[in-house]
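User: For a benchmark we're assembling, each entry needs the component sequences followed by a predicted structure for the full assembly. Here are entry 17's components. Please fill in the structure.
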Amino acid sequence: MLSKTQFDVSGERFTVSYLISDSDAEARARHLIVEQTIEFPEHLVPDDSIREHIIGRIERLASVSDAAAVVDVSYSAESSGFTLPQLLNLIFGNISLQPGVRVAEIKLPDSMLGLFKGPRFGRDGLRERVGEAEYPIFCTALKPMGLSSSSLAAQAAEYVNGGFHIIKDDHGLADQPTAPFRERVPRILDSVNEANARNGSSTLYVPSLNSPSERLVDDAKWAVELGAGGLMLLPGISGMDTMRRFAEDDDIAVPILAHPAMMGSYVSSPVSGMAHSVIFGQLSRLAGADATIFPNFGGRFSFLESECLEIAAQTVAPMANIKANFPAPGGGMRVENVPDMVRAYGRDVMFLVGGALHDGDEGVAARCENFISSVTEAIQADDRERRFTS
Amino acid sequence: MLSKTQFDVSGERFTVSYLISDSDAEARARHLIVEQTIEFPEHLVPDDSIREHIIGRIERLASVSDAAAVVDVSYSAESSGFTLPQLLNLIFGNISLQPGVRVAEIKLPDSMLGLFKGPRFGRDGLRERVGEAEYPIFCTALKPMGLSSSSLAAQAAEYVNGGFHIIKDDHGLADQPTAPFRERVPRILDSVNEANARNGSSTLYVPSLNSPSERLVDDAKWAVELGAGGLMLLPGISGMDTMRRFAEDDDIAVPILAHPAMMGSYVSSPVSGMAHSVIFGQLSRLAGADATIFPNFGGRFSFLESECLEIAAQTVAPMANIKANFPAPGGGMRVENVPDMVRAYGRDVMFLVGGALHDGDEGVAARCENFISSVTEAIQADDRERRFTS
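Assistant: Structure for entry 17:
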């Protein structure tokens, strides 16, 4: 038996809803609240502050079937150490290693949300940056890997001419010899700046920041000083807290796009991992993404429409001081899908369109314009329909 | 259609074996080699260097059932950008978002292994540091969360007295008010150093490094300067490449332990994610872990004995210049399981024992000694049996 430990806490707590798939979900939940906190034989903990404030509390257990329940577990704010890495660890660290537990929702009190700055720009700030007040934002990617820096730069100019708001590196562009980071970023920036000056547009170029750990900060600051219009982070590779660090750094202060590379394993099982809305919605927003990229339904990935809409809902759900950000569905977007996408996401969305802008004889700029006008038309049609039916 | 792009490559390639669960695994594989590389309509790529060197190549497809095949895909070394973050992205970035694809094995040529330093100490170096030439290494954790820095320091002295080689922070100890990082590390170090001096032992104290991104490097260097005997990283939270960065930093130069927090989602589905041997074996070693912690079979986690042994096999499989590291099974280790563990892992293992050292009346130090001697006896019994049967 441990000696008694006494300490005070603020009383602030946060709640995690776990979907536990087990015929004895309550037993699994009792195990979970120990595994995620003291990771120590519970019977050796006396009736003290550790038992009271550290071990998680089962607040509610609601069966959803004979073999599954949603269990709300609360933890003291102090157990998070007031940092994102330990918050993530507390929510899902060890229990990720036990299949049958899925993080369904996280509820942080305002005091804990206040520890985070969230997206620096958010929806309003990003709309202002790209000069688009009410229609969707259009984002595309420079690709494929293997093109030279000057070819990528030329491609970027076509996207600007086509009226897209944001041009990002394909997430596979890292530091390959065909287009090294420090070579391609200035070339593409020059090209985008020239095209913007010519067209009177304000398209942003957003390099992908997937540098080795020791170069991340230098590469980010260098790109921003050169004039990069944002940075794309890959939190599944560099860590969710690395994205937060960049989003909160006043010396960087550009919009942050979050790419979902490597994060699919969190959502690929319906009974393990995390809900789409948690990892691509709540956590991505908490960690400062101004736009959260995820695979759209109906494309070449397996996300359901409902899962995409749950992500989108979390980009704007009330989160105290944390600004709303943009859902950024992408992956196999085609003009033919535009009406479905508009119906699903409405106006407050960043559409990420890639390969489809290259497929056809009209040229890239014309296809960009065509995509944008098909969205505009679909929105106007949607508006008319709403007015008609309301 | 893109214009033709021509460039030279070294010809060095690496191979990823994917388990693809699909009745048309070949079609999925053809999609994969595009998704993971050009992410662009393949019919728009002319007969050029991008087609030849960037798109992955299907080297072999072996059906394992009507609905699954192992597909070996090779990529040019250049596509990795010669960095770990892009290597991870290339192996599994986007395809992680499509259930039914599991990374089964990675084969890097010596030229690519040579880009990485791997574990600085490895098995031999760590054995030397802790003064244990041939028997297993014993590691334990300071816990539970909620204890004060001085209670943790007192607990550490008991572990030293009990003869354990490595004492790490529980992975949940971050920067909580009960034992802040900068308070607990020096207190625990003092306590361990004193006990070592008294006993003539060389037990290492290994703090858990789960600091916010902007503090990671400073916290690591500070702890090492104070005399920390190693650092425990949580690559599932801070990123695999962050661990590599610390392992390769000559100003840090202490043994690195890798903790599996948040990484369970990669292995929880048998048809998606990554094989246990890849993420906890190959990648952890490549990224410089001197010991790779994973949940032992027969404990409170669901890993099978075969999965644990596949991890262990990868800690010592030939990897050119990369040193062998220690498999470090943990999680619900009990004296009763020792014979099974010894039979499974042999001598070259780090046993991570936690709560079990506290359960009983003999006191922590006595239970440590008891655990160690039960392992020693099991190994000697095993040796006798081998001699007898050989």
